[in-house]
Design a protein that fits this description.
Blueprint (H helix, E strand, L loop, with lengths): L10 H12 L14 H12 L10 H7 L1 H4 L1 E5 L6 H8 L3 H7 L13 E5 L13 H14 L3 E8 L5 E8 L3 E7 L8 H17 L3 E2 L2 E2 H7 E6 L4 H8 L7 H10 L28 H10 L19 H13 L3 E7 L3 E3 L10 H12 L2 E3 L10 H9 L3 E6 L11 H16 L4
Parallel strand pairs: 5-8, 5-9, 9-12, 10-11
Antiparallel strand pairs: 1-2, 3-4, 4-8, 6-7, 10-12
């Protein structure tokens, strides 16, 4: 049960503030902490919904706020309604309602029938910290607002959180994007979600995506997106994990194995203390040798490779879906450095450099060309080694991880261009 009260902070509080603002109330207090103006706004919202005005976001209040996070509400058609009147009253548009209800006849609305009414705002916020819950709610909103998007649960994390994959398109060519392998690189999650939303809107409006016809790309290519590979780790870094539970104390013990790494901002690993992008069967033994030599012999915030390749549920889920679907092209989003990695040592997939140069040209990022193996056991490494197809690691932005969400607007345009070029590669 969601329970947010005065004095709480972190990404869940920011999520509640977002919902309250979308509902028409001013939620903002100091430093993103639940209190002051935020608590007053919650009380005002509770009164407007006939809820007990206690200023605490418990189950009932969260359920009332939920539509403002998934971006839609259910509505029962009344006598005298038209799509225009419904849209005007509920903050939607006729086009949004029609897109979400493809079988709906605007000229024959049946009284008593239930329809979906999406709200007229972007589902993907660009100014708050993310959590696994927010990601789940956005993905739910996607499949309702855009019925041509499917959602698949490909596995579960250590803490049993769903690892979500979105599927969009009808073509035989299969492109795969993944984000947030590393917990403190969570800003990559809103990047792939924002791109998915913009691409979906371009399909609806018969527009372009990165200069390519979106409808043609949709018909020619199927895009698969896992927006958050490491939900537990992200929740730890962004403050969504409860700090008074046994699990949190277990994580603190792991962090103490490497006290020189800041906590939780330096945490890249999953909740077991395994660096997921060092856990794939691409010369994993070499990665173990390297990292053990550097002193990373125990689970902790980063660089521990696990006890064997694929011994974590998150990497196993990505590995299994990759083997099942046999993607033709993959992009893994990380931060930071504004670089594009395109090969794995001597493994150079056909077309890999050519597409890499195109992505570098539209983004200003540097296409790296290392002469020797420099790292091992990453997802991109395994994909290239196994299938000899183009696979890339995109190091977005510059700075110190976690890159602040305030820089999203600065970083995203280059990433969008890369994602657009890749999804239209087979056109």
């Amino acid at each position: 049960m969601i329970l947010i009260k005065e004095g709480d902070g972190g990404s869940l509080v920011q999520m509640v503030q977002l919902a309250i603002k979308r509902a028409g109330f001013n939620p903002f207090g100091l430093d993103g902490i639940f209190g002051g103006r935020t608590k007053s706004a919650v009380i005002e919202f509770q009164k407007s919904r006939g809820l007990s005005p206690d200023g605490i976001v418990g189950k009932n209040t969260f359920n009332a706020l939920r539509p403002f996070l998934v971006g839609y509400t259910d509505y029962t058609v009344q006598s005298g309604d038209s799509l225009f009147s419904i849209a005007s009253r509920l903050g939607s548009t006729v086009a949004l309602i029609e897109n979400a209800n493809p079988q709906l006849s605007a000229y024959n609305l049946r009284v008593g029938s239930k329809i979906i009414v999406p709200f007229n705002f972007s589902l993907v916020p660009e100014n708050i910290a993310y959590s696994s819950l927010l990601t789940e709610l956005i993905c739910e909103g996607f499949v309702v607002r855009y019925p041509f998007i499917d959602i698949v649960i490909i596995g579960r994390s250590v803490m049993n959180r769903p690892i979500i994959m979105l599927k969009m398109g009808k073509g035989e060519n299969k492109v795969f994007y993944n984000a947030s392998h590393h917990a403190n690189e969570w800003i990559t999650t809103p990047m792939v979600l924002k791109f998915t939303e913009e691409y979906a809107n371009a399909v609806i409006k018969a527009g372009d995506i990165g200069g390519a016809n979106a409808e043609y790309t949709f018909d020619n290519t199927t895009l698969f997106v896992v927006p958050m590979v490491n939900p537990d780790g992200v929740d730890l870094v962004t403050g969504a994990m409860e700090k008074d539970g046994e699990l949190y104390y277990d994580v603190l013990k792991l962090a103490n194995n490497y006290s020189f790494i800041p906590f939780p901002s330096g945490w890249k690993a999953n909740i077991n203390g395994v660096d997921l992008n060092l856990n794939y069967p691409a010369m994993w033994e070499k990665a173990r040798e390297q990292k053990f030599a550097a002193g990373f012999t125990l689970p902790g915030p980063r660089d521990f490779v696990g006890y064997s390749a694929l011994d974590q549920p998150e990497t196993k889920a990505i590995y299994n879906i990759s083997r099942e679907l046999l993607f033709d092209l993959t992009l893994s989003l990380h931060t930071q450095g504004e670089e594009i990695y395109w090969r794995f040592g001597a493994y150079q997939p056909e077309g890999g450099r050519d597409l890499g140069e195109k992505m570098a040209a539209v983004s200003g990022y540097r296409l790296t060309d290392p002469e020797e193996f420099q790292s091992f056991a990453g997802y991109k490494d395994w994909f290239i080694m196994t299938y000899l197809k183009p696979g890339y690691t995109i190091e977005a932005g510059r700075g110190t991880n976690p890159l602040p969400i305030e820089r999203f607007g600065e970083i995203y345009p280059a990433v969008k261009n890369i994602l657009a070029v890749a999804v239209s590669y087979f056109n």
